[in-house]
Amino acid sequence: MLNRQVVLKSHPNGVPLPEDFELVEATSAEPGEGQMLVRNLFFSLEAAIRGWLDGKANYFEPIPLGGAIRGPSVARVITSRLDGFEAGDLIFGLHHWEDYSLSDANTILLSKLSPEEDIPLSYYCGGLGGSGHTAFVGLHEIGNIQAGETVLISAAAGATGSMATQIAKLRGCKVVGVVGGENKADLITQKLGADAAINYKTCGDLTAAINEACPEGVDVYFDNVGGKTLDASLQCMNTFGRVIGCGMIGDYNDQDNPTPVFNMWKLVEKELTLKGFLLYTYMDKVPAASAQLHEWVRSGEIHILENITEGLPNAGWAYSEMMRGATIGKNLVAMDLQEGEHL
Ligand SMILES: NC(=O)c1ccc[n+]([C@@H]2O[C@H](COP(=O)([O-])OP(=O)(O)OC[C@H]3O[C@@H](n4cnc5c(N)ncnc54)[C@H](OP(=O)(O)O)[C@@H]3O)[C@@H](O)[C@H]2O)c1
Q1: Are residues 144 and 273 both part of a single domain?
Q2: How confident is the prediction for the chain on average, in pLDDT?
Q3: Ligand 1 pocket, residue 226 CB under 6 Å
Q4: Is the pTM of this model over 0.85?
Q5: For residue 189, which phi and psi values (nearest 5 degrees)?
Q6: CA of 180 to the centre of ligand 1 (A)
Q7: Which whole number is the average pLDDT over 294-316?
Q8: Helices marked H in the chain — which ranges?
Q9: Is ligand 1 within 6 A of the CB of residue 160?
Q10: Distance 224 CA to ligand 1 centre (A)
Q11: Whether residues 141 and 272 fall in one domain
Q12: Ligand 1 midpoint to CA 208 (Å)
């Protein structure tokens, strides 16, 4: 079968551009023993992919020039020679940006999905998938949030941040979001329930803005961006505060020049805990997170924000939009369906 793939054409210089990606045509392989052929339906666009485009290893191998971009997808099994999976099953796992992928027991994040009928399948690639799980695990396992505490969240209108904002509110916290636009500020206060929003692009002195929004001090900072926002938040933390190191997207487009952080002394002065985490390490916490998130989505207490781009040829453009900060909510690519196919 014809198998279109999106490959890396050039290492991005700063924000990835659509021209850094190329659509090529290949043919799909036959699954061997222990493998299955899957049809990708939705790709989750991940900030972490940016770190794999520079030709340098981080916690995953870099993607070579000409190599297919990898990312998590929701897919349907076409044929299976892997125990426990059969044709028609829906799965989640790390695949390549392509129509058809081979998957096996070693596929990272491989899990079988049992989507509920009234819940859109795309949610399992975002709010009810990695983004929601990351927000839930970060707030509870790393941040140990408690009702009544003040939680500051950066990239609060993004995939992870929008979920963290709503979860922290549902846990009885005061939530202040840091965002890069008035539309995002309105969204998180009016739709997601945040108590206040700070537009870091227009607020001037960010430390002063955080202090003004949180005169009682910040107990937990959920850091999605690092850099200047992390630095400013350190100055506003309460004694025994926790900083959740979820990501540092603010530096991903120029990783050779990370933004200096000057206020590390606050870790000592305020006896803070700063702990990074990767969701993969906490997979045992995902079933409970998933059950609770389903309940909140079903009851309407959590809104899942999605920005879905149609068609594999547009994946590079969609990723460029995400990495220049233009989007709101979870960025997904919906694969083009062929005649007779359905989700
Ligand atoms: N630890 C884990 O296991 C794990 C898992 C998933 C994601 N993450 C991390 O979580 C963070 C958020 O990821 P996400 O998938 O939820 O994406 P996302 O928040 O939807 O990412 C896009 C948003 O990031 C913000 N941003 C801040 N600085 C930026 C910059 N210099 N360039 C571009 N965008 C910038 C922008 O929002 P503003 O306009 O508001 O700035 C943009 O809209 C990332 O740091 C990611 O690495 C960690």
Answers
A1: yes
A2: 96
A3: no
A4: yes
A5: -85, -40
A6: 11
A7: 97
A8: 130-137, 159-170, 182-190, 206-213, 227-234, 265-269, 286-298, 315-323
A9: yes
A10: 6
A11: yes
A12: 23
In eight-state DSSP terms, residue 338 is P
In this structure, the answer to whether residues 208 and 313 fall within a common structural domain is no
Residue 340 has pLDDT above 80, yes or no: no
Length of the chain: 343
Query: Cα dist. 333→12, 189, 234, 310, 328 in Å?
Result: 20, 27, 36, 6, 14
- What is the H or E stretch that residue 49 is in? none
pLDDT digits (tens, 9 = 90+) for 246-295: 999 999 999 999 999 999 999 999 999 999 999 989 999 999 999 999 99
Ligand 1 and 307: CB distance under 6 A:
no
* Residue 290 within any structural domain of the chain: no
Looking at the fold, whether 69 and 117 belong to one and the same domain comes out as: yes
Residue whose CA lies nearest to ligand 1 atom number 5: 134
Is the Cβ atom of 179 under 6 angstroms away from ligand 1?
A: yes
Using the mean position of ligand 1's atoms as its centre, give its distance from the Cα of residue 5 in Å: 25
Q: Tell whether 175 is covered by a domain.
A: yes
Q: Are residues 37 and 83 in the same domain?
A: yes
Tell me which residue has its CA closest to atom 40 in ligand 1.
Answer: 179
Q: Is 11 exposed, middle or buried (0-12, 13-18, 19+ CB in 10 A)?
A: middle
Q: Tokens for 63? A: 């993607």
- 145 CB under 6 A from ligand 1? no
Compute, in angstroms, the gap from residue 329 CA to the centroid of ligand 1. 10
Q: Separation of 343 CA from ligand 1 center, angstroms?
A: 28
- Residue 310 in contact with residue 158, Cβ under 8 Å? no
Q: Ligand 1 in contact with 131 (CB < 6 A)?
A: yes
Joined tokens for residue 124: 């399992």
Residue 41 in contact with ligand 1 by CB distance below 6 A: no
Distance (Å, rounded) from C-alpha 99 to C-alpha 23? 11
Q: Could you tell me which residues come within 8 angstroms of residue 117 by beta carbon, excluding any fewer than 6 positions away?
A: none
Structure-block tokens of residue 217: 């001090």
Mutation probe of ligand 1 site: the residue of 45, 182, 243, 249 with most atoms within 8 A of C-beta? 249
Read off the pLDDT of residues 213-237 as tens digits, 9 standing for 90 and up.
999 999 999 999 999 999 999 999 9
User: How far is the C-alpha of 320 from the C-alpha of 15, rounded, in Å?
Assistant: 7
